[in-house]
Amino acid sequence: MDYEDFRGSTCGKGFLVEGLKCMNVLAEKSRLTEMECGTNYACILNDNSSFLPTEYKVLQSQKGGCFVKCMRMLYNGKTELYYFSGELKPLSTVLLSIDAERFLTILCNLFAAIISVQSNGFLTCRNINADFERIYIDPSTYKVNLIYLPLKEHLFEDDAAFENEVRTSLIKLISGLNALSTPRMMQVLADLQNGSLGVEELYSKLSGKMIANQHDNNSVENREPSTEPTRLKLVAMNAPVRFVITVDKNAFTIGKKDSNDAVITFNKMISRVHCKVTGSRGQYWITDLQSSNGTYINNMRLQPNQPHELKSGDIVRMANSDFQTVID
Fold first, then answer.
1. Please, are residues 184 and 100 in contact by the beta-carbon 8 Å criterion?
2. What angle do CA 28, 18, 26 make, to 5 degrees?
3. DSSP 189
4. Confidence band (pLDDT; 50, 70, 90) for 297?
5. Which CATH number fits domain 232-327: 2.40.50.100, 3.40.190.10, 1.10.238.10, 2.60.200.20?
6. What is the pTM of this model?
7. Residue 229 CB: number of other CB atoms within 10 A?
């Protein structure tokens, strides 16, 4: 069954209906109206008092994060939330031509985005649109971008309800598409159906499999073998291909220039010599080497030439490419 057949099937209709439920609840209560604005997307609030200005300000401060950029406007006197989704593609559209390997990359990025929101401290998954028409993908990097609605009335009762909605939709999707019927995807499907596994556990299992494949053609090979066991890896979260950087030297440079220990060619925004990782035996630091577009740790931009300690689980951003730190 291909995607078009899937959408027309009973299972496919159920999948689409489930994904639209959260927005339909508000629409049926006449709380908002959805609009397509060319290639962008907007929500009109019929009651301006439902808007949460504090959450909107926090949303505006999430530069380079996992949210679709949003602007508050007025539409016939009503609050309009205008989302700049034009250069992105809905997940439902990407699925038309995706293969299992690229879907795994998107899935990993989706889990990472959810974890990022859950650890945000100010924003909540309860206000994220879980419809696959409103989960957007950067077609060049496969980074996941989410629609956040700063509203008093939440789309979901709690984060667990949001997680369950996403899991249910993913299970129906994977079960109904022949293109995703690979042995590895079947294991992912089994993990999704395992209610004892939370999103963090699902992400760890999926990213762990990415690390296990570090010797494939997309991995960075060790150039100068060390007598110490490998202890640090940077796992690409939004690259167009699987990419794992293995740090195997006490001073390890990263950039797009061929002379670096790790050469990144898929992002032109990364500098020729972007940053350096130093340390060994479980203790590591990263230093920005005066890169043009910056090095970030957990959304905090580093000062050039000032080392910052790395811990397992940290998210390293080089320009606009994200990597998860794994220290074993």
1. yes
2. 20
3. H
4. very high
5. 2.60.200.20
6. 0.62
7. 8
